[in-house]
């Protein structure tokens, strides 16, 4: 009997092979301008906030924090994630305090947003294996470091998620061009940019993120996603069940996922068998 093996690949939504995600910390006033910019150009961000610090006065206006009551409306369409309750250098904290910093931040955010909060960015870039495991036990499924990779590889460990680069990195636009030029669809690529919106005010360089947004806007082969979008989508993709002969697949998850079959995109609807 002849055997015909097919090339079946995991794919991002609509069969895309590239994803762009951004992550910004601290929930300060300039997030309002940054969110508006993201919305204008169709970018998606994860905003990591400290729910216990919003009412602390600051001498510089750009360092003031957005009220918790504004989170739900301001960040609509994006992800709100934890950044701990009071932004300590978390790897120096006792285990009990590490857990409380996460759980209290989650509790406040979830009460305000009416949705579960499962993401995180390490405050002050501080983390170790113990911190990561405590975060995991507190229901956190992804946590961003500040360690730039200058690569487009998918993370090996979502709880030690290293970004591609900071927005002030001198190679940002070289990386952007490299990313948009990638065309080999047999690979999956992720471009992950991080920073703080107040840095644009402090350094008077909003032009950087505005130029970046324009250059990244509207590419047909890029999926624009939050951190949690990526985690949940690839988790669902990992549960696809494909028949041995490669003629049909079953998607047991509650969301649609896409695969590429012999260079053609195929959507697998939730809870359905699909001929491929």
UniProtKB/TrEMBL annotation:
Any one GO biological process: carbohydrate metabolic process
CDD domains attached to this UniProt entry: CE4_GLA_like_6s
Pfam families linked to this entry: Polysacc_deac_1
Keywords assigned by UniProt, alphabetized: Signal
Gene3D superfamilies xref list: Glycoside hydrolase/deacetylase (3.20.20.370)
NodB homology domain residues: 18-276
GO MF entries: hydrolase activity, acting on carbon-nitrogen (but not peptide) bonds
Superkingdom, taxonomy of origin: Bacteria
SUPFAM superfamilies noted in UniProt: Glycoside hydrolase/deacetylase
Protein's UniProt name: Polysaccharide deacetylase Est4D
């Amino acid at each position: 009997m002849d055997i015909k093996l097919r090339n079946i690949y995991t794919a991002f939504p609509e069969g895309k092979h590239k994803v762009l995600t951004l992550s910004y910390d601290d929930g300060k006033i300039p997030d309002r301008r940054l969110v508006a910019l993201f919305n204008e150009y169709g970018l998606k961000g994860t905003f990591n906030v400290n729910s216990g610090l919003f009412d602390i006065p600051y001498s510089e206006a750009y360092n003031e924090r957005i009220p918790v009551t504004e989170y739900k409306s301001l960040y609509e369409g994006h992800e709100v994630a934890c950044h701990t309750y009071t932004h300590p250098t978390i790897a120096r904290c006792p285990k009990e305090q590490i857990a409380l910093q996460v759980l209290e931040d989650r509790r406040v955010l979830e009460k305000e947003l009416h949705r579960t909060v499962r993401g995180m960015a390490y405050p002050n870039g501080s983390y170790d294996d113990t911190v990561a495991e405590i975060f995991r036990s507190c229901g956190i499924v992804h946590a961003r470091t500040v360690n730039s990779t200058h690569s487009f590889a998918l993370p090996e460990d979502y709880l030690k998620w290293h970004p591609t680069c900071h927005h002030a990195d001198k190679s940002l636009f070289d990386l952007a061009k490299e990313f948009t030029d990638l065309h080999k669809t047999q690979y999956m690529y992720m471009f992950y940019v991080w920073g703080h919106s107040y840095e644009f005010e402090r350094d008077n360089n909003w032009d950087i993120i505005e130029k970046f947004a324009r250059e990244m806007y509207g590419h047909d082969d890029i999926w624009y996603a939050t951190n949690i979008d990526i985690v949940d989508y690839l988790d669902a993709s990992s549960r696809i069940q494909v028949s041995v002969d490669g003629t049909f697949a079953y998607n047991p998850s509650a969301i649609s996922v896409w695969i590429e079959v012999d260079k053609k995109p195929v959507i697998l609807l939730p809870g359905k068998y699909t001929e491929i």
